[in-house]
Amino acid sequence: MSIATVSRILNSTSAGYSEKTKKLVMEAVEELRYKPNAIARGLKNTKTQTIGVLFPDISGMVSSELLHGIEKVTHSLGHSVIVCNTASQGEKTLDYLKLLSEKRVEGILFASEEIKQEYYEAIKGMNVPAVLVSTKSPKHPLPYVKVDDRDASYTATSYLIEKGHEMIGMISGIKEDPIAGYPRIDGFKAAMKDQLGNENPPVFSARGFSYEDGLIMFRELLEAAPDTTAIFAASDEMAIGAMAAAYRMNIKVPDDISVIGYDNLKIAEMSIPPLTTLSQPLREMGEKATELLFEALKTSKPTQSIIMPHQIIERESVKVLL
Fold first, then answer.
1. CB atoms < 10 A from the CB of 177, how many?
2. What DSSP line would sit under 115-141, residue for residue?
3. Measured between alpha carbons, how far is 317 from 313 in angstroms, rounded to an integer?
4. What single-letter DSSP state applies at residue 37?
5. What gap in Å lies between CA 36 and CA 266, rounded to an integer?
6. How far, in Å, CA of 178 to CA of 176, rounded?
7. Which backbone phi and psi does 53 adopt, to 5 degrees?
8. Residue 175 contacts residue 208 (beta carbons within 8 Å)
9. Would you state the torsion angle of the CA atoms of residues 191, 195, 200, 205, taken in this order, to the nearest 10 degrees?
10. pTM (predicted TM-score)
11. Which helix (H) or strand (E) element contains residue 222?
């Protein structure tokens, strides 16, 4: 048989061969244990069937949930994923973008981090579509998939107020962070001002959103505002850290103090007590962002951004005050 005939069969082209011919070729493939060379295919048709994904912290639970959704869609479409852990470092991010360009990835998913000018220029120079997930850029025309962080934070704070809490404090990540820092703080402050007339509620900001940050910020908040009855944590990991700190200080959750988190990670339902939290659909966000990226690959046109819904997941860490 000709090379062209075998190629059409292996690439599932519908015309140019009979079912008998296809059967013979597939029998030979099985007998020889033949596997297509993806690199060679990519060199020939300039399609590597690979996308690049950049995370600031691949070990984080948020990244894990997003990646689950990304891989689900990518693999269903016959593509592979190259995952890059940037550690929120500019030089490392640029190095990874250079690597992804050399690997001839067909598209970029950029997650949970601010898009700096040099990142945008590097992506633009690659001449491939890019979609942001769990982040957005007010400066650059890149489509995104995310929850409205300010609105979600307002919702979480309103929930505590509806349960009768007025002395509410917040523990946050980096307040200058334009993605998950400032917007969540702004939503908290807006709810406190609108509904309680409190224009200066206590907010304590760490350098991140980790369990360890929650441990430290909980103590600092209570030292400054000992009458606090409820805490809004800007991530579930921080909330679990806050509850651990409360346990060590012999403070009972929710009897002595209530805690609400943000994300609805798996650990939220595993904690003791189970954590009430603001849920953002992370896996679905990963799926939607990937679908937008492949849509852009097909049409070569910019795609629309998507704001995903959020909701309160009630468990047992918030007490109703009469």
1. 21
2. --HHHHHHHHHHTS-EEEES---SSS-
3. 11
4. -
5. 39
6. 6
7. -125, 130
8. no
9. -30
10. 0.84
11. helix 211-224
Selection from 165, 320, 160 nearest residue 255 by Cα: 320
Alpha carbon distance 269, 236 (integer Å): 10
For 8, other C-beta atoms within 10 Å of its C-beta total: 18
∠ CA 216-260-190 to the nearest 5 degrees? 95
**Would residue 264 be called left, alpha or beta, if left means φ above 0 and alpha means ψ between -120 and 50 degrees?**
left
DSSP 120: H
User: Going by C-beta distance under 8 Å and a sequence separation of 6 or more, which residues neighbour residue 157?
Assistant: 168, 170, 187, 188, 191, 192, 232
Q: What is the mean pLDDT of residues 25-32?
A: 88
For the segment 128-146, what is each residue's pLDDT rounded down to a tens digit?
Answer: 999 999 999 989 999 999 9
Cis peptide before 254 (omega within 30 of 0): yes
Q: In degrees rounded to 5, what are phi and psi of residue 46? A: 60, 20
Cβ atoms of 237 and 214 within 8 Å: the answer is: yes
Residue 205 has pLDDT above 90, yes or no: yes
Q: DSSP letters of 275-311?
A: PEEEE--HHHHHHHHHHHHHHHHHH-SPPPPEEEP-E
Q: Quick one: average pLDDT of 64-93? A: 93
The neighbouring-strand residues paired with 147 are 308
Cβ 108 vs Cβ 126: under 8 Å: yes
Token pair for residue 73? 């869609």
Phi-psi region of 2 (alpha: psi -120 to 50; beta: other; left: phi over 0): beta
